[in-house]
Amino acid sequence: MSQSSPFFSIARAHAGAGGRAAAAALLLHRPATQLPPSIHCPRYFPLVKVSPARTVNSHLGLPRATLSSFANADDGSSAKPDASVEQNGGSELSGMAKAFHISPGMAISISVVIAFAALTVPLAMRSLIFHGTTKMKVLAYLTLLSGFYMAWNIGANDVANAMGTSVGSGALTLRQAVLTAAVLEFSGAFLMGTHVTSTMQKGILVTSVFQGNDPLLFAGLLSSLAAAGTWLQVASSYGWPVSTTHCIVGAMVGFGLVYGGVNAVFWRSLARVSSSWVISPVMGAAVSFLVYKCIRRFVYSAPNPGQAAAASAPIAVFTGVTAISFAAFPLSEIFYIAVLQALACGAIGAIFVSRAIKKQLGDLLSSEAEKIASADNTDVQQGGFDVAGPRGAQLQIVYGVFGYMQVLSACFMSFAHGGNDVSNAIGPLAAALSLLQGVASSAEIVIPTEVLAWGGFGIVAGLTMWGYRVIATIGKKITELTPTRGFAAEFAAASVVLFASKLGLPISATHTLVGSVMGVGFARGLNRVRSETVREIVVSWLITIPVGALLSIFYTLILTKILKYFM
Predict the structure, then answer these.
(1) Cβ atoms < 10 Å from Cβ of 257
(2) What is the superkingdom listed in this entry's lineage (predicted)?
């Protein structure tokens, strides 16, 4: 990750001699409509032309924002949603073109290339070539397409978990978020996706009930992929963030209950999954509420909010990196060695962030410290939790620091999501392929590398074509987000998912993030959360498992009749 941030380059630009306070005051006290053309240029974020010299940001093509774009977005107000991300009811390709600021012709070209690759790439895969008869090859081809369809819908819906808050807060533009997530999601799926999985059972389906009836089990696996993918596509079309795991679970339950009987379902596991509807959002909301209140109390109400933000960043990074290194990527099986290694990783991350902040904001921090030493110009209420928030260049520093940390956390979550959730599509796909190859259904199914790459490509394709819909819901339609609010939501969601998974608690990353965004809104007041959006999301959660089950039953009924001619 580059040491440049969308917010850092402006801070550095305004930190020049004689221009630090003047530039901030100009942009903060003049309405956006009165800004000179050289300063204000509306897009996802207004562009700032501060000097002929090119900043690090301009070389990297990162988003840039004026101080005025955040001056009215302090913690007592909200930023206006970008109309380009809203759904206009037009055609899908038109919506994609508007979301990414490309021509409709370019959107059509991208869609055609993705469709062509989806239809032709499986023809060259070993998973298809190794099947001898033409009928088996046709079934393998359809299986690979079913897995791609599921992965496509995972990309369209679930990737908002990582990038939605970054877009909503202004840390990244939508185009940059999608491009970044595309690289990291594919890398995570390909490099970290498990090569051995027990996804065939998913902890829900007792596959031993179907022993000796491979055609029926094969039909159930394909139907589960199709059913989950169908519901995800419907949810994505409305911008509803739903759980991919719940979609698969619902589909498996429907198939197992109708075609295998009551004994074909692990009911205790189903109860645990259902309980996550409550546990996940409540835990996410509670933690994000506390995180955001701490930011308001210890950063916003500090005598020097900018300096407090800069000091808190290494602490947050140290805590996060240490916890993640120990819980998710233990480097040693010996406990005390694993702890020491995790602490070392956290210290390295903290040093990196501390130096990056000092390099990017050092001049502005020094300038503000001198001003505060001479007179109190921060205009904040000292003490208590309800503070007005910093103003001027102090606001710029705070948002710069937290925006930078939010981009880092979004990149990590995106990479981890690709490695984790690709199994929702690839696990059943690999199990179905093993049945076609005549391999006895076992608890562990080996996943070929090319199939992992295929799942990663499906996630990227769905993200590119439809990902903007759910990103808009997470980032803009629940509550208005700024860099501090977005960081609080994302940090809380990652922490809850990490520790709940380690403790074996039923948790949903999607539900946790939605709850975290709501918690940040509640921290600002109950009226800061859009109840109609929350109501739609909760209803979509409640009907996910029943709808997945019904669709799976319907698809299995059709597939069993078709498979009579193939198997």
Answers:
(1) 18
(2) Eukaryota
